[in-house]
Amino acid sequence: MIFYILRRIVATIPVMGVVALLVFSLLYLAPGDPAVIIAGESASTEQLEKMRKDMGLDQPLPVQFAKWIGKVASGDLGTSLHSGKKVSEMIGARVGPTLSLATVTILLSLILAIPMGIFAAWARGRWLDKSLMSIAVLGFSTPVFVVGYVLIFLFSVKAGWFPVQGFTPISENPLRFLRTVTLPAFTLSLAYVALVSRITRSSLLEMLGEDFIRTARAKGASERRVLLRHALRNAAVPILTVAGSAAAFLIGGVVVTESVFNLPGMGRLVVESVLARDYPLIQGLILLLSLVYIGINLLTDILYSVFDPRIRY
Amino acid sequence: MKHRSLALALMAAVLSGPACAETLKIVMESRLGNLDPILSASHQTREHGYLIYDTLFAEDAQGQAQPQMIDEYSVSEDGKTYRFKLREGLAFHDGAPVTAKDAVASIKRWGQRDRMGLAIMKATDSLEAEDDSTFVLKLNTPLGVVIDAFAKPSGVPLFIMPEAAAATPITEAITNYVGSGPFKFVEDEYSPGVKSIYVKNEDYKPRSEEPSGMAGGKVAKVERIERIEIADPLTAVNSLTEGEVDFMQNVPLDLAPLVEGNEEITTAHLDKAGYQYGYRLNFLHPPFDNKLVRQAALYAVGQKEILQAQFGDADNYQACGAIFGCGTTYESDVMADIAIEAQPEKAKALLAEAGYNGETVLLLHVTDNPAMAAVGPVMAQQLRAAGFNVEMQAMDFMTMLSRRASQEAVDKGGWSIFITSWQVPEVSDPVRSYMIVSEGTKGYAGWGDVPAIDQNIQAFLAEPDVAKRKEIAAEIQKIVYEEGIYAPLGQSSRLNAWTNKVDGLIPNGPTVFWNVTKSAEK
User: Fold this and answer.
1) How crowded is residue A36: how many other Cβ atoms within 10 Å of its Cβ?
2) Residues B418-463: pLDDT tens digits?
3) CATH 3.40.190.10 residue ranges for chain B
4) Beta carbons of B34 and A164 less than 8 Å apart
5) Could you tell me if B244 lies within 8 Å of chain A, comparing CB atoms?
6) C or N terminus of chain A, fewer CB within 10 Å?
7) CA distance B171 to chain A (A)
8) pLDDT digits (tens, 9 = 90+) for A95-136
9) CATH superfamily for domain B19-247+498-518
C-alpha cells in the first residue's frame, strides 16, 4: 500500500508538468496585457514596452516558461505582477476560508446526502423516495448564485440571523465562524447533496437486488442491518467515486459562492487574478488546485481498499 | 428571566461584529490593484493615493487651483520662473519632514507619466530645490497651465512622496507607501482583493480653510477606514442596507431602487460632472482611413438613443456634444449637434460620396461594464441603419485595451471603433484629454495624423488668457469633428450611497474621506 501511494505521488510529477505547460500556454495565448492593466489606458506605447521588458514579458515564451518552471521547481511560485507580494503568501492567506468552506460543505453534504439516499432506496417508488429525489433534482438544477441570493435575502436581510458577507476564522471566534460559513456551505452543498444522494440511492438499489442481500434477509437480519451493514458497505465504492470526482465540481462552485458571500478565499482570488491577467498568480493557483484534485483522487483510491477489502494495490 | 436576558445579551455581543463609530467601512467601485498612484492611472489607485498622500495644489469646488501643501508661490514677469515655498510643519508618516527635494523628485517622476506633466517637463530648463522648503521651476517658454497641472484632481494627480520613493523608475511600482496625507496606510493589514486599512494621521496639519472640492482643510475625522472589496454589487448593496458597511461608491442603476427607498440610506451623485463616454475611429485601415466615411459614422451615431439604453431615466444622464465636457471651462457648442441626434440620411449621402464598398466595421464591444455594454448594440444598429457593414466582437474592458493597441487591418486582428470613458476632469481641456490626440502611429489608439491639433495644443499651453484659451479649445473641437477623430457619447455620474450614520462627504470627482464623520447611531 505504501509503495502504491509513493508510486502515485511520483506519478503526479509528470501530470503537474503537463498541467503547468497547458496553463502557461493558454494564459499567454489568451488576449490581455498586464502592463496595460497596471498602467491604465493613458500609458504611452513606449512606457508599456518598458514595463513589459521589466516584467520579462518581452522574452520568447519558451524562455519565460523555462524561467518560471525553474523557479517553481525550487519552490518559488513568483511574485504577483500587481500587488508585488509573493504568490505563495497571497495563496496562503486565502487557503483558510476556502478550506473551511469546502470542509463544512463536504461534511454537511455527507450528513444530509447519505441518509437521504438510504431513505429513498428503502422507500423506493413511494412518496418519500419521490419527494427526496425531487429535492435532489431541484438542488442540482438551481444555479449556485440563485440559491445564495435567496438564502441571503431570507436569512440575512429579512431574518437578520446571518451576516450578508465576510468571514471569521474558526481560531478567532468559533461562533462567528459558524455564522459566516453556514449560508455559503449550505448554498454550495445543495448540488453536492443531490449528486451524492442520487448515487447512494441507485447504488443501494443495485446492491439490494444481489444474492448476498437475499441471503442476509433469509438469515433473519433486520431491514436496518441489511441496509446499513450489507448493502451500504458494498455500495460505498461508487459513492466514493462520485464524491471524489465531485470535488472538481465543488472547486467550480467555490468560485461563485465566495463571490456571492464575499468570502476572501481562493475562488475569488482565481477570478481576480484572471481579470487582472496576473500570470504568476494564476499559474500558482491552477497548479495548487490541480494538486488538490490529484490528491483527492489518490485519497479516493485509498479509501476504496478501506471499504472494500477485496481491492488491494 | 434575568439570566436569560443576560445570556441573550452575551450571545448578541459574541455574535455581532465589532460596532465602532470610529471605523468607516467603505466599498469602492472596483478592487484596489496597484498601489502606485503615479504608475497606475486607475481611479481606485487614485482614491488610495488621496487617502495617504497630499498634493501641492488642489482644485476647489469652482475648479480653481488653490495651494494645498504650498504656503506661497510666485511667477516671474516673463512667466518662465516659478518659485514655490512649502507650508511649515508638513511631515511624512514616518516622522520625516516634507522637504523641497521630496517635491522636486515627485514632480520629476510624475512628469514622466502624466500628459500635463510631460508637457511641463518638455518645457523645463531646470527644477531644483533652493532650500529645505523652497523649490524653483525654470521653463524655456511660458506655460499657462503649470498651476492647473499641479492641481489636477484626476488622470495622474501630482502626489508628493518621499524622495527615495519618487526615485523609483516610472515603469516600476513603488514599494514604500509612506505619504504625508491625512490617513496612514497600514501595510501589515493589507490583503489584496480583500481589504485595505487606513488609520488617522494624528500628526497631519490641515489647512485652516473650509474644505471645498479637493482643496481646503483635510481633517481626518474617523480613526480608521476599512476598505472592503466586495466584487458582487448585490452583496454590496445588501451589506449597506444591513449596516455591515457604511459607504458604497457606485450603486448600479438596476439596484438603485433597493437603496433609494430605504430611510436609513442617503443617496447622491457626489461626482456632479461624472463620466464622459465616447468613441474613436481607426484612421489606419478601411473604411475609416477615409475622412468622409469617418464623418458619415459621426452623423450615423446619435447619443440620445445610446444614453437611453445605458441609463434609462433621463435624470441619470446628460446629452453633451462638447469634446471637453459640459459644465467645464472649455465647454463649446461648435459642431456639437453632430454628436447628439443620429442623422442616418446625412450619413448615407456621405457614404455614397465616399464610395464606401461595404468594408467591415469592427466594433470592439466591451461587456464587463454595464454602462459600456449597452453602447455597442445600439451604436452598431445606428451604423447599420446608415448603410455600414458592422461586426461586433465582445470582450472585457482589459482585453479591449490590449486589442485596440493592434495597428493591423481588421482581418488580421485589428479594429475599427472602440468605446471608452473618462471622468470629465480627465478630458476637460486640450492638454489633459487623450481623446483628441492625433500624433500618428506613435500616438494614442486611433492614430489619426492631424498636425493642426498639436499646433493648437501648443498655442493653448502658451496662452495665459482663459478667454483666448477657450477660443483655441473651440477650434480644436471643430477640427476633431471635421476630421472624425473622436465623438463624445454624453455624460453620466455614478450613484453613491451611504448609511445615515455617515456625514460630511464632499462632492468631488475623486471620492475622498477627509471631513467625513460617523456617528454611533442616527
Assistant:
1) 21
2) 999 999 999 999 999 999 999 998 888 999 999 999 999 999 998 9
3) 19-247+498-518
4) no
5) yes
6) N
7) 5
8) 999 999 999 998 999 899 999 999 999 898 899 999 999 998
9) Periplasmic binding protein-like II (3.40.190.10)
